[in-house]
Amino acid sequence: PRTVRAIFQMEIAGEPLDISKDIIYRYSKPDEGELYRPFEILPEVTAKLSEKVYIFDSDQQQDVEVVVTAGRNDLVGTVSMAYPEGWSVHPGMQKVNIAQKGNSETIVFTIIPPKDQSEGLITPMVEIDGEYYTRELVEIDYDHIPHQSVILPSESKVVRLDIVRKGQNIGYIEGVGDVVPESLNHIGYNVITIDPKEINAELLSNFDAVVVGIRAYNIVDELKFKQDLLFDFVEQGGNLILQYNTSRRVKVENLAPYHLKLSRDRVTDENAAVSFINPDHPVLNYPNKIEARDFDGWVQERGLYFPDEWGEEFTPVLSMNDPGETPKEGSLLVAKHGKGHYIYTGLSFFREFPAGVPGAYRLFTNMLSLGKDNINLDKKLTD
Fold this sequence. Notes:
By secondary structure, the chain is mainly β. It is 10% helix and 41% strand.
């Protein structure tokens, strides 16, 4: 909301003078004394979905929560949902009744996806006295800055993936933080976070693949003592996927079982054309057929810190570049090592998963699935 201002019109010695001042709200707290915040005019009601992206890896329905917050006392109305063509929502409408301004009520809807791959937006709509409200309230409240209320469109992305996965139990070694574990859980994988100090051969034998979080090899000292165990895991048939690390301050001497040198190569244009260097490679074909459209809708960038040197054991899969630059072929490198696969990727999956990009999910699933055609999906590991 815009700041509300008061204009004081005066006349001094026959000359008009206007003074404009912000209108503020003054209040007090016993432990903080007198406080001030901007005077704001907010909607009678706001509604917020509990998640910004909902992933459907099959045609199974999901429940979604809508938090309705009253901007006045005695709020009575109905809540419904706008949704993409081909999708369904049940029930079509629900009642809401909130007695006290500032209180909230959570309404649950069931979203039913279509049979085929699809994506779109859902928006909660609150009807009060014949008027529809479709905004959410975001409050920014820190001691060092003035309180701010931001009114935004209330919407979330829904994605029905056409996806097949192989493998079940995934170990995850945390780096600087991303939502890869949660994202893989959304598509049916059983992801367990591994404490690097606890890594041993017996523990690793429980996993079909191990994923290393972004920049883990830049910040996790313990990995320098566990690298040989991870390479042995690959030799025994596991898949090891390393996400990007910066080219400086790497904690291990050998990032891969074969020669691999990181660089500062990156592709910042999220719409940069992607070509397939080895279109017949299994990572582009099994269990999901990867096509050019799988690189549509990527956000912020293609990837960063691509290797620029690698041993002949590695197979480069993709080529891409920013306008005016030379092609970069190090974004996805796959090497067979013993019975398993070592994979290094600088592709920005950590950005694409939160944005619900279907192609990113399909490609990462193929990476996890390499060599897993006969895996038993009924064996589920627990913490």
